[in-house]
Design a protein that fits this description.
This protein is of the alpha/beta class and about 350 residues long. It has two domains: about 300 residues, Alpha-Beta Barrel (TIM Barrel), CATH 3.20.20; about 35 residues, no CATH class. The chain has twelve helices and ten strands. Helix 3 runs parallel beside helix 4. The relative contact order is 0.12.
């Protein structure tokens, strides 16, 4: 297993993280899976044996049941497996049972600690933006939790670029807890993060945890152009994430992905994950699993290294459309681009992709 530093921290995390949205399977989250404590413990043991040292959950997953299962399954293995969780989404019907207010964040952190049966949370993440709470209040609440020893590091998830930069600016001015990471959607199916979020991470030293690196199963090879769709799958259950804007481009990408996988005699999912792990700024991929077989099939991706030619083919077929001002920068600023700029623009500057 490979380990990478999480942003500008001294914390090393494995390049694969176990996602636990499948734990519990209550309500809406039953669409992703329904692992009970016994199965969760088996999945965690497989991950520990493979060297994975981070588990990612959230208070909203099955309304706290995922955290409860994590807490019970981790009992006796608290030191070698770190835990990341999140807060923001509704946890009740009251007007203050959601959002990023000081009241909600602190109370939800304490509730998560009880469910997880832990004295601290290794990485506490803002699960989504809250445009009604002053960000100064949110960042001060995170600082309070960190100084109290209830959380070790803080991060965000699903923020836009200006949201993240505003949070970093507030922390710098106040000398308070600074975000060390962001958790984002990013895959061959959807590369929008290359516009702002990945360049920002490179420039500001943020770690990047990727959720749904297989695009909710779209990049596993089971969805093919002109073929009968599988009988089950998240995209057949009105899951809605990620949205598909260009079906033709998606199938073109899948065909290249499957061809590379066939030439390597490995599952397409491993190729998709290997591509993601080699991208700039990426720290770890959050992978979930409905069962042991699915988890074991994805773990070897950490050892798969794509050739420059294979990466170029995948880059070209899945390249994001250059929106303004990026097409203008690729055309007229190429003589003075930095590493963060090139995270998006390098294929266009080199002529490997067109705008």
């Amino acid at each position: 297993m490979e380990y990478r530093l999480l942003g500008r921290s001294g914390l090393k995390v494995s390049v694969l993280t176990l996602g636990t949205m499948t734990f519990g399977g209550a309500g809406f989250f039953a669409k992703t899976g329904s692992s009970d404590v016994a199965e969760a413990r088996r999945l965690i043991d497989i991950c520990r044996d493979a060297g994975i040292n981070l588990l990612d959950t959230a208070n909203v997953y099955s309304k706290g049941l995922s955290e409860e299962i994590c807490g019970e399954a981790l009992d006796g293995a608290r030191q070698d497996m770190m835990v990341a969780t999140k807060a923001r989404f509704p946890m009740g019907d009251g007007p203050n049972d959601r959002g990023l207010s000081r009241r909600h964040l602190i109370s939800e952190c304490e509730a998560s600690l009880r469910r997880l049966r832990r004295d601290w949370i290794d990485l506490y993440q803002l699960h989504q933006w809250d445009g009604q709470t002053p960000l100064e209040e949110t960042m001060e609440a995170l600082d309070t939790l960190q100084r109290a020893g209830k959380v070790r590091y803080v991060g965000c998830s699903n923020f836009s670029g200006w949201h993240v930069m505003k949070a970093l600016g507030i922390s710098e001015r106040a000398g308070s807890a600074r975000l060390v990471s962001q958790q984002i959607y990013y895959s061959l199916q959807g590369r929008e993060a290359e516009y702002e979020l990945l360049p920002l991470s490179l420039d500001q030293g943020l770690g990047v945890l990727v959720w749904s690196p297989l695009a909710g199963g779209l990049l596993t090879g089971k969805y093919r152009r002109g073929q009968r769709q599988p009988a089950s799958g998240r995209h057949l259950q009105n899951w809605g994430e990620p949205p598909i804007y260009d079906e033709a481009k998606l199938y073109d990408t899948i065909e290249v992905l499957v061809a590379i996988a066939a030439s390597r005699n490995v599952p397409a999912a491993q190729v998709a994950m290997a591509w993601s792990l080699a991208r700039p700024a990426i720290t770890s991929l959050v992978i979930g699993a409905r069962d042991e077989a699915q988890l074991k099939a994805n773990l070897p991706a950490v050892d798969l290294k794509l050739t420059a030619e294979e990466r170029a083919k995948l880059d070209a077929v899945s390249a994001p459309t250059l929106i303004y001002p990026y097409w203008h920068q690729a055309s007229t600023a190429r003589d003075r681009l930095g590493a963060a700029d090139l995270a998006l623009l390098e294929p266009f500057v080199r002529g490997e992709a067109r705008f």
